[in-house]
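Notes from the 1:1 (GR / supervisor)

We went over the backlog. Supervisor wanted to see one worked example end to end before approving the batch request, so GR pasted a single chain during the call. The sequence is below; no edits were made to it. Supervisor asked that the structure be written out right there so they could see what the output format looks like.
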Amino acid sequence: MVLSSMTVRVKRGKATYFVQCAATDTVLALKRKVAKLVMRDPRDLRLMVPKDKIATTVDYALLAQKDKLAELEDKAVLDQLGVPDDAVVFLALWIPGETNAAEGKWEAIEVPEPAPLVDPEDGPESEAKA
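Structure output shown during the call:
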């Protein structure tokens, strides 16, 4: 069953963009929506996913291994790639060269692991003792 509408979480650094799209959209259509959010040309965006499985959670250990991510091809359809609703994809931007924009490079995928909401030392048990 193909979902008519789905949300894809696009992560770059500490930012997360929630993008509404259709399962029948191409990667390029998704890039165009993201490009509007980050005010860049879609050609300056690279969407990456884990090579083994597109997931709805982030494996931070996997992000440290640069060869474990694969770029999504513009012509590919999200449903055919197996992109689930609420999937997480990673965004890298093109960094143009100082003298020639074509001689730039892609930024590294760096998504920091979020800090815990509750400090383990200040958990509910320590409040009960006070």
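Supervisor's comment: The longest strand covers residues 87-95.
Batch request approved.
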